[in-house]
Each structure stands twice: as C-alpha cells, then as structure tokens.
Design brief:
- Helices cover about 45% and strands about 20% of the residues.
- The protein is built from twelve helices and ten strands.
- A hairpin with a 2-residue loop joins strand 9 and strand 10.
- Keywords: Repressor, Stress response, Transcription, Transcription regulation.
Length: about 350
C-alpha cells in the first residue's frame, strides 16, 4: 500500500505528464502546489515507486513516466472526476435542439460532439440488432420493377435497400403483402421475422395471395436487415496529433482495428457497471496496448443497449473524460428514450 506522501507524488507526476507528455523530474514535482517535499525526498520516493511498478524511467531521461499500473492506481484511488463547465453543458444540450427523428442522427451527432470536446477518438456501439423489433415496413417503387424497401425498428433504426419486385407480381399485390406483414409481424425481433413467416403465416399468405410462390422471394428481401451491430466512430485522425502515435506502424494498427467491425463490437460490449476505464493491456488487443478506453452503456427503457466511449492514449485526461462520459451517456439515454416515446 502506498503512503500518503507517495500517493501525492504519484498524483503530481501523472497530472504533469498528462499535460506535458514529457518525463517528469523530481525538481518539477517538488515545486508543484500541494506536494511540499524537497527534491531529494521526491527523488527517493520516485525510485521506490518505480521499484513497485507505478513509474517507469525512459532510458533517455532522468525523469519518470507513469506505468499502466500507476495509471490504474491513479484512476481507482487518486482521481476525482472533473465537473464540466457551464459552457460545455450548453454545447452539449444545444446539440440536441434539432428535431431529430432517427437514432442514426442522434448517434452521429453525439459521436462528433464527444470527439470535439475531448480531442480523442469516439466510439459508439449502436443497439444490438437482436434487441430491435419491427415497427414498420414500406416499399417505395422506383422503375423497371425495382423499389426501395424500408424497415423501421422500435429503437429508431431505419434499414433501406434496393429490391426487385417479381415480374408476375403486380405492385398493388406487393403493397397488400407489406400491409399484412406490418399487421402480423409488428413487435417481433428482427432475427425472428422470417421464421415467423415460415412457421405462422405461410398458410395464411398462400391462401390470400395466388402468387405466393413468387412473393416468397420478395418477403425474404423485405425482411432482411443488417446482421452486424453498427459501430460509429469519429476523430480517428485526432490520434495522429498525440505524441504516442508518431510511429507509423502504431497508426496503421489502430486504423486497421477501426475497420474490424466485430472486434470493435467486442471491445465496446454494453455493461451495467457505470463508467468503465480500461487501460493498456486490460483491453486485450495489440493495436491499443498504449491506449485507454473510457466507456459507459446507454439505456433504453432501463436496459443497456449500446455503448458510448472514448479511446485515447494512456496519457489521457481521465478526470475530464470520465466526467463527460458519465454525463453524456445519461443525457444520451434520456434523449433516445424521449425519441422512442414519441414514436
């Protein structure tokens, strides 16, 4: 267990390093407000903190930098999340003054806002498709038997894609089919839609539609939604401004990671434990061993359905970001809940 003096010195070193990105020496620490120890005393304590694994000493410098163990202790025992300024809150709430009626718009705007406020990369994991239920189907004719299929979920997602209406099926029959599917499938989880048609509606549809054989292919097209959870990111290029990412290989690994949708989903799985801070090797991915992820789940009807988070260097401003993630995830949950109540 660290002594109070060691805690104060570790706190001062990490706070200085977060701002400067330069190794911190004993003379610098001794001059910090609230430390109150001589440079010699600080130097001895820094040596002990290094021996215990809380600090590291780059071979090119006499100063010390925090280790991942040091950051972990700092976050768990020394840090008080920072209260946000009034002007920051005004920016946050003004971002929702637009009349947004789709969850994608809310997520995209929130992703950009969070990246701008933190100057780090923002990641938001959209609601799991398995938790989305059908709210509305529609087809909009285009030309030459083509149309746009629109599938709307109870959580506000809108899936659109181009489909082809079979040659032998009049458009009014396709419309009547969609009307019946709307009536019979409303509220069913998306992954179960086609199974519900096959097990519960096949006989009824065959009885009502003489060309059911041709319509079955149309049904499959209309009811097929994207299977992957959606990952929204913003500010990846901001990481290039961080000293830790001057190494081209590190940048390439990070950018490759962003393209791996399923890996990003696994990194950002929703939880019910409030704000989570994962530092370096705790993330269990080589591309982000020099990074930290601060995240929190957002709720719809009291259930965690997605995650909002920030990825930055281990040298990130934890107090500032933790306070913002906590505030924004709650505000985000309220905003989404309001949208769904209006649906």
């Amino acid at each position: 267990m660290l002594t109070e003096r060691q805690k104060r010195i570790l706190w001062a070193i990490i706070n200085d390093y977060i701002v400067s990105a330069e190794p911190v020496g004993s003379r610098t620490v001794s001059k910090k407000e609230g430390v109150g120890f001589s440079a010699a005393t600080v130097r001895n304590e820094m040596a002990d903190l290094e021996e215990m694994g809380f600090l590291e000493q780059p071979h090119t410098s006499a100063g010390r930098i925090p280790s991942q163990k040091g950051y972990r202790f700092y976050v768990d025992h020394l840090l008080t999340p920072r209260l946000w300024r009034r002007e920051d809150l005004i920016i946050l709430h003004e971002s929702y003054t637009l009349q947004m009626d789709r969850i994608e718009e809310v997520i995209q705007q929130t992703t950009s806002l969070l990246s701008n406020l933190t100057n780090y990369m923002t990641i938001i994991l959209g609601p799991k498709i398995s938790e989305n239920r059908l709210k509305h189907l529609q087809i909009v004719p285009l030309f030459d038997r083509s149309a746009i299929s629109i599938l709307v979920t109870d959580t506000g997602y809108v899936y659109q894609k181009r489909i082809m209406i079979p040659e032998k099926v009049p458009y009014h029959e396709a419309e009547r089919l969609v009307h019946l599917l709307n009536y019979r499938l409303n509220g069913i989880p998306l992954p179960h839609l086609r199974k519900a048609v096959a097990q519960e509606l096949k006989t009824e549809l065959a009885h009502q539609f003489s060309k059911y054989g041709e319509l079955s292919g149309l049904i499959n097209q209309v009811l097929q939604a994207e299977k992957q959870e959606r990952v929204y990111t913003s500010g990846a290029t901001r990481m290039l401004d961080q000293p830790e990412f001057q190494d081209v290989e590190k940048v390439k690994m990070l950018l490759d990671l962003i393209e791996e949708n399923q890996t990003m989903v696994e990194l950002m799985e929703p939880t019910t434990n409030g704000v989570q801070v994962r530092i370096g090797n705790e993330i269990h991915h080589n591309a982000v061993t020099n990074c930290s992820i601060i995240s929190a789940s957002y709720m719809i009807n009291g259930e965690p359905v997605g995650t909002i988070g920030v990825l930055g260097p281990t040298r990130m401003d934890y107090g500032r970001v933790i306070g913002l993630i906590d505030l924004l995830s709650k505000d985000f949950s309220r905003r989404l809940s309001t949208l769904f109540e209006l649906d």
